Amino acid sequence: MSDYTADEELIAHGYAANGREAAKQAFLAGTDVSMQSGLYMRELPGLVAAGEVPMARLDDAVRRVLYAKLRLGLFDQPMRGLDGPPAAQRAEDPAFIALARESARRSIVMLKNEGALLPLAKSGTKVALIGPFASGTQDLLGAWSLFPGQSAPVGIDQGLRAALGDAASLTVTRGSNVESLLPGGIEAAVAAARQADVVVLAIGEGERMSGESRSRADIGLPLVQQALAEAVAATGKPIVVLLSNGRAMALPPVARDARAILVTWFLGVQTGHAIADVLFGDFNPSGRLPVSFPQAAGQVPYYYAHKRTGRPLPSDAPGTAFKTRYIEASNEALYPFGFGLGFAPVRYDGVALDSERLSMADGTLRVRATVTNTGQREAEEVVQLYIAQRTASVTRPVRELKDFRKLRIAPGASVQVEFALRAADLAFIGRDLRPTVEPGDFDLWVSPSAVGGLHARFALVR
User: Are 423 and 437 in contact (CB under 8 A)?
Assistant: First the structure.
């Protein structure tokens, strides 16, 4: 099945001269269903009649479409998926609301919590909620939130008020719009910050700034928000950044220097309550980054599983010339893939392998490590297993995530985590573009992110 008008776009690509040729090329390449363009309806009858598209190919496409419908049960129940109450009614189901809140708060990633600023106290603390996302609900649902029947989300200010109870302990000031000034907004935000004990700064991307067809030349904060953040930071009050975003962002110094940073993405209908749950400690953040945050936009595209370079930068000589390096920044991510903090610190100890050799035939390598909760409350830790093959017929990434475990660990307790690796887990696409497994030496890490961790080595043997 094609994407939206993809077959028709063969013309603009310069691959097909017209709609007839585009339909023929797409259909003969194996595209059974054309989405939206209408080219198949207009052109296929003539192409089949002229013998340019074999009837056998048409029969094959129809057979596959009918088989998919059969597997979906549409012959027995043609309106399946359209029955039941309308979406607007289902969205108000208490079970759905509870699931939305749980999903949202589990999606929040805590990147920083300097001096254990979080969780905030629910009483005795004056909180200034500042930023373009502080009030209102327009930008909380994210990209593709354009369909009818959706419930209005709970605003961040609504969630904080509900959690605090005392309305006098919270002030709300937008300060600016997402991409434009508010008359007197920055001045009002500064005044609110000066009267508060802590500032919760709700900044980031609007919902129309990320997602499909929303490429940005600069993935940093819009300049007006940066000016707002700098003015508020100049008051010297401790700041918690709530980052609304649909992508990894290049955070300016004023944001990365905040005492605490929560990546809240676009959390949906329970946004305000989910954020309040984490801010005030009713929920221990357990989300982990599914992308790496670069130090600067010039590092993009940045991904943890990048290939090695022929000129690696020595760790003991970071300024060495003629190596793979930036002038203004190191090669590392600001926050790596897999990273995330909770309210309870954990310690990793004692990685052990049951063997230093893994057989390609039928072997299993068991990897064990101990994770200890050194904090005063329960930890929910995501323990990650990474591998890297040292030499192969195709150059391999510096690390690849192979498995993970999410553990609940009581205060002061230790848990042993175990992973099992088999030869098939070490497969990659070879030079002939087919999956292959090759013997060789491997590095292995058990770690809380794609950087650092407990290291071991093993060999894959025939």
Answer: yes
The answer to whether the CB of 108 falls within 8 A of the CB of 267 is yes
Q: Which residues of 350-359 are buried (b: 16+ CB within 10 A; e: fewer)?
A: ebebeeeebe
**Overall pTM > 0.70:** yes
Question: How does pLDDT run across 412-449, given as a tens digit for each residue?
Answer: 999 999 999 999 999 999 999 999 999 999 999 999 99
- Of 124, 106, 197, nearest in space to 164 by CA: 124
* Residue 383 confidence (pLDDT) above 60: yes
Residue 123 in tokens: 């009483």
Residue 61 · residue 32 · CB < 8 Å: yes
Q: Taking a C-beta distance cutoff of 8 angstroms, is the pair 374, 342 a contact?
A: no
Amino acid making up residue 182: L
Per DSSP, 73 falls in state T
Counts of helices then strands in the chain (DSSP H, E): 11, 16
- Write out pLDDT tens, residues 33-44: 999 999 999 999
CA distance 189 to 311: 48
- Active site includes 3? yes
Roughly how many angstroms between the first and final C-alpha of the chain, as a whole number? 41
User: Catalytic one among 3, 83, 316, 362?
Assistant: 3
Pairing of strands 239-244, 379-389: unpaired
